[in-house]
Write a structure and sequence with these properties.
single chain; alpha/beta; Rossmann fold; six-stranded mixed sheet; four-stranded antiparallel sheet; 9 helices; 12 strands; about 40% helix; about 25% strand; globular; binds adenosine-5'-triphosphate
């Protein structure tokens, strides 16, 4: 079996007195599609933000392709490694956020070309060529010169996906990417993710409340509760036959609220 691309070992994350991740360990294989599900506040977004080095950690180890992500203890918390190391990590991992986070004063094309030009020194013409391929892939080549404010939420999110792909990451993190969308726009974003899952060998980690999508998309489901992984398994095992009481209760509530699992 291939070595894990991500190894998370005994991570803790505290905000003051609040323990958000409590000795969490998990491994992800190259190319795996994982869905992180669980109640609100259970720490799913936090683990993605930690992988993206947007947060410090309070303890534990994380390796990405064998490289330590955090070290150099400072004021009792572990901080991301130095800038060059961090830059290398950022090229390995792309993230798409719930609220798009596009640069509002840049057109769609510039949103996608900015990171490769600034961080990798890619020439403008090459960055634009690649950006147009990515915009074509997400169905937005005709919007290249539009400003973000001129786009629908679904279109903004597809630009955000193209932007994250522009650095050719091996790992993509999706944090509730459809939660801020009107229901009729959800499917267009999910379709792009289906396409990425089918056509690339990228490792994909998805935090979602769309249980039906998680079921269809993921190779493996991780169920989070109170900062721990309570249960994990193949989608059919978790959704049809959850073993843990906390997973059963969570899924019962989801079904009672009328969602497909
Ligand atoms: N910057 C912060 N300062 C203090 N507490 C925080 C901060 N960020 C997150 N938290 C807390 O950490 C806990 C875990 O948050 P997180 O966003 O990871 O949960 P989640 O499982 O993704 O929830 P949801 O499904 O609602 O997004 C929550 O109790 C949240 O209030």
């Amino acid at each position: 079996m291939a070595a894990p691309i991500i190894r998370i070992d005994n991570i803790t994350k505290r905000y003051g007195p609040l323990t958000v991740l409590d000795g969490l360990s998990m491994e992800v294989l190259p190319g795996e599609k994982l869905a992180l599900i669980g109640p609100s506040g259970s720490g799913k977004t936090t683990i993605l933000r930690i992988l993206m080095t947007l947060e410090t950690i309070s303890g534990g180890h994380i390796e990405v392709e064998g490289d330590q992500l955090y070290h150099m203890p400072k004021n009792g918390s572990l901080v991301p490694a130095d800038d060059r190391h961090l830059q290398r990590m950022r090229e390995k991992i792309g993230m798409v956020f719930q609220h798009f986070n596009l640069f509002p004063h840049k057109c769609v094309l510039d949103n996608v070309t900015l990171a490769p030009m600034l961080t990798k020194g890619v020439a403008k013409a090459a960055a634009e060529k690649r950006a147009m391929e990515l915009l074509d892939m997400v169905g937005l080549a005709d919007k290249a010169k539009n400003m973000p404010a001129q786009l629908s939420g679904g279109q903004k999110q597809r630009v955000a996906i193209a932007r994250a792909l522009a650095l050719s990451p091996k790992i993509m993190l999706f944090d509730e990417v459809t939660s801020a969308l009107d229901p009729e726009l959800v499917e267009e974003v999910l379709n792009v993710m289906r396409k990425l899952a089918a056509e690339t060998d990228m490792t994909m980690l998805l935090v979602t409340h769309e249980m039906g999508f998680a079921h269809d998309f993921a190779d493996r489901i991780l169920f989070f509760d109170r900062g721990k992984i309570v249960e994990e398994g193949k989608p059919d095992e978790i959704f049809r036959n959850p073993r843990q009481e906390r997973t059963q209760t969570f899924l019962r509530k989801i079904i009672a609220a009328g969602h497909r699992v």
